[in-house]
Amino acid sequence: xxxxxxxxxxxxxxxxxxxxxxxxxxxxxxxxxxxxxxxxxxxxxxxxxxxxxxxxxxxxxxxxxxxxxxxxxxxxxxxxxxxxxxxxxxxxxxxxxxxxxxxxxxxxxxxxxxxxxxxxxxxxxxxxxxxxxxxxxxxxxxxxxxxxxxxxxxxxxxxxxxxxxxxxxxxxxxxxxxxxxxxxxxxxxxxxxxxxxxxxxxxxxxxxxxxxxxxxxxxxxxxxxxxxxxxxxxxxxxxxxxxxxxxxxxxxxxxxxxxxxxxxxxxxxxxxxxxxxxxxxxxxxxxxxxxxxxxxxxxxxxxxxxxxxxxxxxxxxxxxxxxxxxxxxxxxxxxxxxxxxxxxxxxxxxxxxxxxxxxxxxxxxxxxxxxxxxxxxxxxxxxxxxxxxxxxxxxxxxxxxxxxxxxxxxxxxxxxxxxxxxxxxxxxxxxxxxxxxxxxxxxxxxxxxxxxxxxxxxxxxxxxxxxxxxxxxxxxxxxxxxxxxxxxxxxxxxxxxxxxxxxxxxxxxxxxxxxxxxxxxxxxxxxxxxxxxxxxxxxxxxxx
Length: 544
What we know:
Elements (H helix, E strand, L loop, with lengths): L20 H12 L1 H33 L7 H18 L19 H39 L2 H11 L3 H6 L5 H18 L5 H18 L7 H43 L1 H12 L8 H28 L17 H14 L2 H9 L5 H24 L6 H23 L6 H7 L9 E3 L3 H6 L9 E2 L5 E3 L5 E3 H10 L5 E4 L5 H12 L4 E11 L2 E10 L4
Parallel strand pairs: 1-2, 1-5
Antiparallel strand pairs: 3-4, 5-7, 6-7
Helix pairs in contact: 2-4, 2-5, 3-4, 4-5, 4-7, 4-14, 5-14, 7-8, 7-9, 7-14, 8-9, 9-12, 11-12, 11-13, 11-14, 11-15, 12-14, 13-14, 14-15, 18-19
């Protein structure tokens, strides 16, 4: 029985196949329909809102990095001092020094020179601000990359998660190679995703150049090149199937290998040796792998867990229902989605696995950030899925992000105060400087950097190594060299702080107490995240 008041609906009149009315009516509907304009306006509004939220994420990241304050760390001082030496040589037309090439973990003519130029104009704060610019650029590229792979919400979640990890905040105010290298990795990854549908060869050339430059800036970046190659192949597979996958993978490997091989051939043996000593055949330590695993879980476990959840949920269901869109002709099959999730998330395990193999925790808190960059897109998917369609469960996403934010703030603060404030020590040494003075400092890179305009690099000696010529002309090294130098009164000022060479410091302190040529000037206490300590300063007796 027909319901009262309701008129029957006639079926739509469909033109016959092959008639002229079909394409005409379809074009007329597409051009004049208000739904099309409404969809375009929604797209534009979503784009601008996403950009505004991204700007807020970047502002938060910048403020959290800038609130980290301490004097120069040894690595910062070393790279900046080396950069200043090279800039001075270039200005006077002298050949560049070769000693930095043999033990730096990246090319000394790239980042150190750039950072030294900025440091000359804006001091240490400027060099650290340069790192902040690179890390902010990395977060912005990560958002764009994740948006291209998924959608705006996943991109914003990925940027918010990555931008507040301890490694991102720490490296954003730390004048070393790392921020530049991570930015170049992110730029190469963005190029391969952005150009998935465009011409293959130009995109592969640009990405290969970015990856090669990143490896030159920091040799350990080579570890992450295969992940970018895999990402390039997977994104090409969507549009060109197996031909695109193989073609892009082969081309990218070929171009990158050719650029790196050519650069090593031009650079010569010292760079090959530095690559071996600092990266491929690095000396093993004695750190406990269990302790390293705990550190990794603390510094990146939360983001990695979200990445695994995002990978699993994306494998199970592709369509991110929280952002409606019509079904596309490039929808991804489950094997492809599984490959993408595994490729990105497994990259986060590379640096921890390698350092566990070496039994060393040196710079692990920095290196873990390289892998988190790749896991962040899947973590963004995971956080977006937790939030649900139409912000159904925003409280869960907020709790997850705030928890990781709190951890990132506390961990970056703890790590940034892991070395002693040297301001008072530097102020105490300044009146003792002499044009021909000789100084023994446990980590000589720090005073060498702060006194670069008042002293020459050869006036400083660290407790890491010494080659001392005694009065008879014999060359002594190690503990014997230090003992002989103290016995001869070779150094004018000696500073020990029992941070790295503790056993040698004990030996030298005992020698100094029994040596009437030196008197203790005083002790300068300091506090780090790991406890209290002090600088013990000795000077020649006649200079007290």
